């Protein structure tokens, strides 16, 4: 039987910013439950929820202080259980973001570990002696600065790959590992349909603790603090454990943009899928780059692997702001939606992209919420930059860009809440909200809905294999087939018309066209078509 997630379209919900049910300015389970019919209307199969566990929120929930409790900002365990019940009633699966790499420094485990060098939980974390009065090595935090924090009481350093309040678990310790497996079992028994595993390739570090190499620009290569020997054995253990529970999915965030690295983490006995950052996180729009990565994913992946398709998340700028040239932002957003929802792979949509929400840029550092941006600001000031220069650098690093509240309508707080939200809105543009776009035939939201309906209806779109994957100028086109269906998708990202490809000689129907309703000898700039072709492949 085909696994459900292979045909699914996932939608990422950034918990504090989606829907505020109790009107305190923070999104929660009550608000999310109230919006479940929206997902049904849109045609979403699965939700990915960012962390909802108890947390001091130094890194907005990715610093967990209690894995077994719902953070009060998001409601109660009863609210969570009701949400799961209602989502499942609608046929919507739910996967939970889970951080196995580190805990909050406020977690009881770490409090015990730091309390006494001889405590049984001391070895649950990574502690090292100073080297000549300095940190054990030169490893840098991925948020900036040293990855080591000194504890004066014990005169040792503890390791943190991210913020100093996010303390790395020692996965070489069997008891610590077992404790994390118990966490997974708890939520799977609660009805969660799987996990998105945060920075999963960081679970092992090199136990020689060698210095990482540094290039001529003083940029560190993270050679010894991720993707280490033994990590795939840990992944296989996690996979074996989770897949004892029926119909569960494991999605991995692997911190790399190299397809050859990413591909090693998924497949039989490993993670089911990983995020293909080789495609999803490209910084600027370039058709050649997109096509090259689509082709690489097809060439590198084996039969037991599927790529993922996405261009936005809570960790990166929204792609409509990142890729959209002035005046054609929404046109390009529709073209990219066509690609994500018809190419081979598992799509992950990010909340608000379906209405064309734009990035949030701060003009005052006091409004910035993301620790990565704030750290960049502090480091810039310490390096002698002006406040203006530091703010520019902070906005470049900040992940607040894509974390502003969902824009449901054109009321004062965009229908997200009746009170001032926890984070600012970007400059609101007319028409960028759900209420106004729902009944507009040509809106971005209506276009997404059409695509999702077609994908659900046609096997060739939701799990077809490529017969053809080609590029002509700035047009990407492909043929996919499954269960006797053959579909051709043509997407012209360029500014000039492109000849109709010879492979489309047997069109029987036009399922979708974003501009013209018929096809002649050319594909015009900014046009997308989904076509039915007759017959089996040649």
TrEMBL record:
Specify the domain of life of the species encoding this protein. Bacteria
Among InterPro entries, the record links this protein to: GH, GH13_cat_dom, O16G_dom_2
Q: Which CDD domains match?
A: AmyAc_SI_OligoGlu_DGase
Keywords (A to Z) from UniProt: Glycosidase, Hydrolase
Is Hydrolase a UniProt keyword of this protein? yes
- Residues in domain Glycosyl hydrolase family 13 catalytic? 12-403
Which Pfam families does the protein's record reference? Alpha-amylase
* Xref: Gene3D superfamilies: Glycosidases, Oligo-1,6-glucosidase, Domain 2
Q: What family does the Swiss-Prot or TrEMBL record give for this protein?
A: Belongs to the glycosyl hydrolase 13 family.
Its name, as the record gives it, is Alpha-glucosidase
């Amino acid at each position: 039987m085909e696994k459900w997630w292979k045909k699914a379209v996932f939608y990422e919900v950034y918990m504090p910013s989606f829907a505020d049910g109790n009107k305190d300015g923070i999104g929660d389970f009550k608000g999310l439950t109230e919006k479940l019919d929206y997902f049904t209307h849109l045609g979403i199969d699965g939700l990915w929820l960012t962390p909802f566990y108890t947390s001091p929120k130094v890194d907005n929930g990715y610093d967990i202080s209690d894995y077994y409790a719902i953070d009060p900002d998001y409601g109660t365990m009863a609210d969570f259980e009701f949400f799961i019940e209602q989502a499942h009633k609608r046929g919507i699966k739910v996967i939970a973001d889970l951080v196995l790499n580190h805990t909050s420094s406020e977690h009881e485990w770490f409090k015990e570990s730091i309390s006494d060098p001889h405590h049984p939980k001391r070895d649950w974390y990574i502690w090292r002696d100073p080297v000549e009065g300095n940190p054990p090595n030169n490893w840098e935090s991925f948020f900036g600065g040293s990855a080591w924090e000194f504890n004066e009481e014990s005169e040792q350093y503890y390791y943190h790959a991210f913020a100093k309040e996010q303390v790395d678990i020692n996965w070489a310790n069997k008891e610590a590992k077992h404790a994390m497996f118990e966490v997974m079992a708890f939520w799977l028994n609660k009805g969660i349909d799987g996990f998105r595993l945060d920075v999963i390739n960081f679970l092992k570090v090199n136990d020689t603790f060698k210095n990482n190499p540094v290039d001529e620009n003083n940029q560190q290569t993270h050679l010894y603090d991720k993707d280490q020997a033994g990590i795939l054995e840990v992944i296989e253990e996690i996979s074996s454990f989770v897949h004892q529970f029926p119909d569960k999915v494991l999605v991995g965030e692997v911190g790399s943009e190299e397809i050859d690295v990413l591909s090693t983490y998924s497949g039989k006995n490993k993670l089911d899928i990983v995020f293909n950052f080789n495609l999803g996180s490209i910084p600027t729009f370039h058709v050649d780059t997109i096509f090259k990565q689509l082709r690489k994913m097809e060439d590198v992946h084996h039969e037991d692997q599927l790529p993922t398709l996405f261009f936005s998340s809570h960790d990166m700028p929204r792609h409509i702001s990142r890729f959209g040239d002035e005046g054609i932002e929404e046109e390009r957003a529709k073209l990219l939606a066509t690609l994500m929802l018809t190419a081979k792979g598992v799509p992950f949509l990010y909340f608000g992209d379906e209405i064309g929400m734009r990035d949030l840029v701060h003009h005052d550092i006091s409004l910035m919420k993301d620790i990565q941006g704030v750290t960049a600001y502090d480091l810039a000031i310490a390096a002698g930059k002006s406040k203006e220069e530091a703010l520019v650098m902070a906005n470049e690093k900040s992940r607040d860009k894509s974390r502003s509240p969902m824009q449901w309508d054109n009321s004062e707080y965009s229908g997200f809440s009746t009170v001032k939200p926890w984070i600012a809105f970007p400059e609101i543009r007319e028409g960028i909200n759900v209420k106004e776009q729902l009944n507009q035939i040509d809106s971005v939201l209506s276009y997404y809905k059409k695509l999702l309906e077609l994908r659900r209806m046609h096997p060739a779109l939701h799990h077809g294999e490529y017969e053809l994957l080609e590029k002509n100028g700035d047009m990407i086109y492909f043929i996919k087939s499954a269960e006797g269906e053959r579909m051709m998708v043509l997407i012209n990202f360029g500014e000039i018309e492109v000849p109709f490809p010879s492979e489309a000689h047997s069109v029987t129907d036009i399922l979708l066209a974003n501009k013209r309703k018929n096809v002649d000898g050319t594909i015009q700039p900014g046009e997308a078509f989904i076509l039915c072709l007759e017959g089996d492949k040649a």
